[in-house]
Amino acid sequence: MKRVPVHILAAGLAGLIGLSSIPALADDLVVGAAISLTGGLAYADVPAQKGMQLAIDEINAAGGIGGKYKIELKLKDSRSDPAQTSVAAQELIDDGAAVLVTPCDADPSIGAGQMAQAAGVAAFSTCASSPSLPLAVGDHMFTNFPGDNVQTTVSAKYAIDSGYKNAYLLMSPDTSYTMLPNYFKTVFEKLGGKVVGEDNYSMGQQDFSAQVTKIKSLSPAADVIMTGAYEPDFPAFIKQLRAAGITAPVIGSDGIDSPTTFALGDVAEGVVFSTAGFAAPGNPLDAFNKKYKAATGSDPDTIYIAIGYDLVKVLEAAVLKADSVDRDKVWAAVRELENVQGATSTITYKGTDGVPLRQVALVKVVKGNRELVLQEAPDPALVPAPKL
Amino acid sequence: MTWIGRRAITRMLDLAALNRTRPAFAGALVLIVPVALVAVVAGNFLGSAEQRIAIIFLINLIAVVANGLYSGNSGIMSFGHLGFMGVGAYLSAILTMTPEKKAMTLPNLPEFLAQAHMGLNEACLVTIVVIGLFAFIVGTPISRLTGSAASIATLAFLVIVHSILNGATDFTRGSQTFFGVDRLVTLPSLLFWVALSILAARVFRDMPAGLEIRAAREDELAAQAMGVNIARRRLIAWVISAMMMGVAGAMIGHFLGAFSPKKFFFVDTFAILAMLIIGGIGSVTGAVVGTAVVTVVMELARRLEESPILPSLGLPQVFGLTQLALGLGILFVMYKRPGGMLGLAEVDDWFKHRFSVAAAKITSFAAEKRDGALVVANVAKNFSGLKALDNVSLELRPGEIVGLIGPNGSGKTTMLNAISGAVPPSSGSVTLDGVAVAGKPAFRIARLGLGRSFQNIRLFKEMTVLENIEVAVSASGRGGDIRAEAMAALEELSVAHLAERRAGALAYGEQRRVEIARALALKPRYLMLDEPAAGMNSAETRALMTLLREIRDKYGLGLLLVEHHLELVMSLCDRVVVLNKGQMIATGTPAEVQNDPIVIEAYIGRAHSAHSSPSAATERSLS
Fold first, then answer.
1. Nearest to B623 by CA among B457, B408, B414
2. How sure is the predictor about B607, in pLDDT bands with cuts at 50, 70 and 90?
3. What Cα–Cα distance (Å) separates residue A102 from each residue in A82, A98, A141, B348?
4. Nearby residues of B333 by Cβ (< 8 Å), 6 or more positions away
5. Which of A64, A245, B146, B271 has the smallest number of CB atoms closer than 10 Å to its CB?
6. Per the CB < 8 Å rule, is B322 touching A79?
7. Using CA atoms, how far apart are residues B416 and B388, in angstroms rounded to an integer?
8. Could you give the angle at which helices A303-322 and A327-334 cross, rounded to 10 degrees?
9. Would A11 be classed as within a structural domain?
10. Contact: A20, B306; criterion CB under 8 Å
11. How large is the angle between the packed helices B81-96 and B147-167, nearest 10 degrees?
């Protein structure tokens, strides 16, 4: 076989790479997504990207936003690495992105968000739920998922409304839901409840006998238990809790919105958790799920798909409001958005620090199935301020 | 600074030692120039995204070179170095953040940290000192472990540091993002630290500590027998590489501006190790080349996956090509070159012959004159019930040649091991010029004046002949011009022409001679040779006999010979000690022993003893 000279190969490769940037039309909304399509964050960013793509295809097929502005998605894999995210974000900003989408985690989102902030570009994390994210970056950073403080405002109010007065909190400094029980505490106490005990656990600790013993000995006894624990800690905790004969209801967060929880059997019966949405017949999420199935042939397997769809619906509303794809005007419009109808909820950024006011669904585990307890937007006055 | 030892510091500052490292300096320069070019071009002619890629490349370079300094030289793959990077990132960030920012994000910091506020380079210096101390404490137990136990210990260290970073919430915000760090990294300052790291790593490799730790990587037993304090050498490499990782951490922290402990865990550990393994774990050039190649390949793969090329060819746009390319790259390199692209080669290997090896000035390997002898009294060694040595006593005086003979399995090599400290005796005493040495580590006994060779040659195979000898000169701790003394030892054994050859590539007889030269380079008072004539033809054996006699006469050494070659034993030795089944059955002049009926019986059995000519029979069975 004759060898292809190296310089021809190199020239070919260089040529192919040169093709890669096709200039966007002036009337296109350029969305740069520096998100994690591989690595540890892909579990959330890949579905979010699918949802975004569905919304973009839908909008572009209808002639663009308001029949005028098509959406161009520039996608770069940030490989779940903050350093790679910063490279991808820089390239996208340099490439003229009017909006930057960042991964489902605070580390890379803060770094990329600060770059977007400096460049005057609005940045959205696909699904990071830490409300301190915009606080750490500035007024150009937005979150998309219901924040931890928003979720717990709804769950704490539900607890009070259910007649629970004494809460026990189980939290961990080394998980991604560190602050969540603290937000619950703030709201619960504001509404007249009392926290009668709280403990820390370590991620992966498995043995919760010390905590369970303490809960048993509480006086007054806890009539509700709230935790930010998720796998593998939540299953271990709930099993040991129920084995000790403690029947107090347990409230969790979106961290346990996973198939594991529904497969736990009797011990998980009655567990209530907050999450971004619930598909009830005829509601928007149900409609979205049907649409997604029609487009892809499969049911959405995680809420992050609908969350990605929501993100693009927000951008659509902002461009409509601004009647422009200029990055400054789009950013200014996002800050004024109210009650944008997404797949999971209505979404409001007006009057917030960048963490949207959204409806939160409370879901109860009933015989291994999900049952909607309630779905509502929290009272903005009750939502605790983000804590660093 | 007592932990390095005053002697070691004197040696580090020794100009002669630095002179040896001139090729290493030149080699480091050759590596630094293209790296600097990358930084200068990126900084002046490329866009901000490319500058970010260049910065990440340079930071990775520090980390890869640092990890190689320990893993490559010691032969112990470290999975723990990212831990130091993490500590470096957090510590330096706490030092550079303004007190106002810290009051907001880290309200529970101790006062002295809350008020600290300095520039990045100053913070790097503080980080280097603190991490040096930290690494010293952690490394002290780890450096006593060997092989995979040491590797696993480094892995445990990584997990522990990760837990601490997650748990020390007052300092790190736990698993939450640590943010508010100013992005202070600039290409020029980063380049300074990269150049310093490359220089340090490259020169360390040829400094006494680097030389000795590499010898231990090749053969721990032989290195100890040459006087190498392996644990201390590993500790030095561990501490220096940890300091460099701390700088890499400070740089990545001040580049990202926001990070959490997971940035310094398994994923990045394997990314750094992949670059090191692809380039060649045993060389600084390999570390630099590996980092560069991986960066280029991954950037090309990334551009391919982001471009519309694949879709335009009717293929789906696939993400993950970068990892795929990296994985295939590792497989390919490991298949073609298991030691990595560069193996153990350094860039200066190409031109180091231009640096002349200093001519030998030293002509004497005589140890200082002392009274005394090597006295072995009632030494026993049990291996789980088996008595390999049973109350054996012998004495070796300077200037004397004693032969140790006996049938296979009689305990001769065990005897040498018991004396040299390779296998401490179960009971009994060994004194070297009046100093009790039984139970002391082998390297201490070697430094007290006991040299040895091994039955199955144990040279440091991947090192040059000259380096083999330099290890012994260096580890003996006597200072001076290591290279000149090493050359002199080679000349003594008439193998100076082999100096630059790889030791493992020599012919058998040459290896034997180099091994004796290496033992001699320790300037021993006593030299124990385990079957030095094994595998030699009769001409070589006669030459060896002449040589051993000369060495003895010239330096007044006491020689203990384990040998099966009776002609050699009988004509060379002043006295002979005969072992059988771990017991000493005879001792005396060669003639006395040769005619001792007990000896004859031990060798050929009772039935034949009356009829056979003892010397002929013994020789048959022994050879």
1. B408
2. very low
3. 10, 13, 10, 45
4. B277, B278, B340, B341
5. A245
6. yes
7. 12
8. 110
9. no
10. yes
11. 30
- Give the chain B residue whose CA is nearest to the CA of A88: B49
Q: Which residues of B touch A38 (CB under 8 A)?
A: 319-320, 322-323
B175·A91 Cβ contact <8 A: no
Pairwise CB contact (< 8 Å): B166 & A203: yes
Asked if residue A159 and residue A54 are part of one domain, the reply reads no
Alpha carbons within 13 angstroms on the beta-carbon side of residue B341 total: 20
Same domain, A261 and A338: no
> CA–CA separation, A78 vs A73, rounded Å?
15
Q: Phi/psi class of residue A245: alpha, beta or left (left: φ > 0; alpha: ψ in -120 to 50)?
A: left
* CB-neighbour burial class of residue B376 (10 A; exposed 0-12, middle 13-18, buried 19+): buried
Residues of the domain holding A314: 27-146+282-355
Kindly state the DSSP code that residue A271 receives in the 8-state scheme. Answer: -
Strands, E assignment, B461-531: 526-530
Residue A91 CA to residue B53 CA, distance in Å, equals: 11
- Look at the domain B14-352 and name its fold: ABC transporter involved in vitamin B12 uptake, BtuC (1.10.3470)
CA geometry: angle A283, A286, A291, nearest 5 deg: 125
Instruction: Decide: residue A205, CB within 10 A, 0-12 exposed, 13-18 middle, 19+ buried.
Output: middle
Q: Give the 3-state secondary structure of residue A119.
A: helix
Three-state SS at B293: helix
Structure tokens at B468: 């083999």
What's at A17, amino acid-wise? I
pLDDT in tens, B77-94: 999 999 999 999 999 999
| Full-model pTM | 0.89
Task: Identify the CA nearest to B272 among candidates B303, B299, B245.
Answer: B245
My answer on whether A367 and A234 are in the same domain is yes
The string of pLDDT tens digits covering residues B214-236 is 999 999 999 999 999 999 999 99
On the question of a cis peptide bond just before residue A220, with omega within 30 degrees of 0, the verdict is yes
- Please report residues of B whose CB lies closer than 8 A to that of A16: 304, 307, 309
Give me the architecture of the B374-394+411-573 domain, per CATH.
Answer: 3-Layer(aba) Sandwich (3.40)
Residues B105-160 pLDDT 10s? 899 999 999 999 999 999 999 999 999 999 999 999 999 998 899 999 999 999 99
Kind of pairing between the strands at A141-142 and B258-259: unpaired
User: Which residues contact residue B537 at a Cβ distance below 8 angstroms, ignoring those fewer than 6 apart?
Assistant: none
Structural domain contains residue A5:
no
Contact B256 A136 (CB under 8 A): no
Q: Cβ–Cβ contacts within 10 Å for residue A217, how many?
A: 9
Rounded Cα gap, residues A104 and A200, in angstroms: 25
Measured distance CA(B103)–CA(B510) in Å, rounded: 69
Q: How far apart are CA A326 and CA A306, in angstroms?
A: 26
Cα distance between residue A304 and residue A321, in whole Å? 26
Same-domain status, A129 and A188: no
- Whether A204 maps to a domain, the answer reads yes
User: In chain A, what residues touch B56 (CB-CB under 8 Å)?
Assistant: 83-84, 87
Burial class (CB in 10 A: 0-12, 13-18, 19+), B449: buried
Cα distance between residue A136 and residue A108, in whole Å: 12
Here the ipTM equals 0.85
Q: Would you say residue A382 lies in a domain?
A: no
Q: What is the largest CA-CA distance in chain A?
A: 85
Angle at B91 between CA B85 and CA B95, to 5 degrees: 140
- What three-state secondary structure class fits B584? strand
What is d(CA B497, CA B433) in angstroms, rounded to the nearest whole number? 36
Q: Where are the domains of chain B?
A: 14-352, 374-394+411-573, 588-623
